[in-house]
Amino acid sequence: ADGRYAHARAILGLELHEKLPTLKVLLVGAGGIGCEVLKNIVLAGFGNITLLDLDTIDLSNLNRQFLLRKKDVKQSKAQVAARTAAAFNPHVNIIPVHRNIKDPHYDLAWFSNFDIVLNALDNLDARRHVNKMCMAANIPLVESGTAGYLGQVQPIIKDRTECFDCVQKPTPKTFPICTIRSTPSQPIHCIVWGKSYLLPQLFGQDENATDDLDDALRAGENAHEIDALKREALAFKAVRAALRSADRASEAPKLVFEKVFDRDIRNLLSMEDMWRHRAKPTPLDFDAIRDDRFELRGQKASQVALAVNGATSANANGTSTATNGASNGASTSASAKLKDQPSLSLRDSWEIASAKLKEQPSLSLRDSWEMFVASTQKLAVRVQAGEETISFDKDDDDTLDFVTSVANLRSAAYGIPGKSRWEVKEMAGSIIPAIATTNAIASGLIVLQALHVLRKSYNALKDVHILFKPTKPLTPGIKVPPIPTCGVCRDAYGLLRCDPTRVTLGQVVEAVTAGIRWGTTSDGDGDVSMEAPEVSTYEGQRLLSDPDFDDNLGRTLESLGVTRAKFLTIQDEDGVYDHPADAPPMILPSPMPTPAKRPVKPAPKVEASSAASLGKRGAPDDDIESSQPAKKVARGLPSGPATSNKRRPLEEDERVLLEEQNEKVDDDDAVIELD
């Protein structure tokens, strides 16, 4: 063991290296980055590693996920990667977990068992979930991601650095629902329709739309529109029932086809105003396409090429196929370019490789029909076997074939260029080309930042960007503090231990706000009480209650879907309670005052004479009373015992001393002398 760790000990130092075997690390993701990170931390000597990944191995993973082999296809990524990496270091304990990181089992208490979390995910929703769990559990996180030649590594420490959600992420592009449902004009419209609308309608969760429509009708909504929507919902309900019935499995594809590609299109054609300024779609005939009797724009189904970008080419048997651009020309051009220019730039090589992948022929209308029938039957068998819901997965051949076929059939009906299976997979699965070298660079940076965190060298932490620039491939950024308005790392978290089947939302709100009172109210009898704060409650993005909506306060947490590992957010509507770290700091003067070189001695205190106390009345409403009669002063120098020494200061002050009590003077010469 000493020889195995000699280099690591020399680089890390004895103190940190001896600490590594006792640390508990959570590595989320066993894909391209995850395999590289696992290899690095195993060789560095991290002693206890939990590797979690939901996916299974696909053939397309093998070019960059080097811990996986062809014989492992369809097996758990986490289990295979852990088994392979364990051979690198027998002193390391690797626990593989083949589950979803968002499962309720992996709650705050589970996350708190780890010393650090390393993220190697490619799913935005899962990355946000891990970020929030780490912020709530106050566990350091090292976030990462790559896209082609680009990448980023971000260490995250609660209350010290920005979290993953402090900076807004680009919103995935969306399309108007009316365009998707009724008037598609681009291939992506048809792909999104197949992936996000038709597949969930047929194989997703049954949402009981008819019940909602009945409620809307009772509420006074448009009866004609609701009736049309109800017929639509009932038609889909009948198709769903056929897909889930073993007796009707053979006819289920035809029922789906006739509903979606025939009757629905005919219903749209009945709205003549919709097609005044756009081309009308063509209803498709299931039996005619099967028997090769269907003609679309003068061609039979077996000859109708769903051309990509409008370019087609004919193969030997007369069936037209299509590619991205000019089918044969692109390949010839790419080959010629490779031959004539053996030393291409990195970007040119990448563009040529991408073009070659996209040169796969698209499907004819008949090919798409056959793929639709086969994929629909396979998905029907799966739901009949007990799979309640089926969602799209780019690595699930059945769902990919279904989306590819329905997208191309819809494209044919609307006169839109089709796409090859690979292109549909790229667009529907949001596939970002992965490069093994970029993953390796990112994984090395992840481990370096993790070591800074474990060393508590927070000043050494950097956000590192991997760029497609030969002169500057790595660009470190200075860490900045959390954004005060962040709704994740600026929240104050607490663990709520209760029985969600018995505790109501109102009881939780009352318990949390019991010690928070401000403001005063009076009941008219002189009794004064403190006001309770106005709060809103959320679970994720769902509003459960607010000051104007308290219907759910009497419901149990379980009935509202707030159970184990869920976040219940209670927000102060008045904004009185903010995160303490965001309080305004003390502001020092700028520039700072210069201290005196020598201490300044205080000036001697001079006592005022009794004469200095004399003065004119400041205002007629003075309420100062004298215990003795006031002495009068007048002009002139009367004779008497007054000495010249006494007269001199009086003359200098323009005052005259009256030596007799009964002597009178003018009012403007009079003053009051206070003893």
Can you summarize this structure?
By secondary structure, this protein is of the alpha/beta class.
Any overview of this molecule?
With 675 residues, this protein is of the alpha/beta class. The protein folds into 5 domains: 6-172 and 433-478, Rossmann fold (3-Layer(aba) Sandwich), CATH 3.40.50.720; 184-323 and 360-428, Ubiquitin activating enzymes (Uba3). Chain: B, domain 2 (Arc Repressor Mutant, subunit A, Orthogonal Bundle), CATH 1.10.10.520; 326-353, no CATH class; 505-578, no CATH class; 622-675, no CATH class. Helix content is 36%, strand content 11%. The protein has helices spanning 6-12, 14-19, 32-44, 77-86, 108-111, 124-137, 177-181, 187-203, 209-218, 223-243, 252-269, 286-290, 327-340, 346-357, 365-384, 397-414, 421-428, 436-455, 505-513, 644-652; strands at residues 24-28, 48-52, 93-97, 116-119, 141-147, 150-156, 295-296, 299-300, 312-314, 320-322, 462-466, 474-478, 518-522, 528-531, 535-539, 542-545, 568-572. The chain has an 8-stranded mixed beta sheet with strand order 3-2-1-4-5-6-11-12, with helices on both faces. Helix 13 (327-340) packs antiparallel against helix 14 (346-357). Mean pLDDT is 77; it is low at 307-342, 610-627 and 629-639.
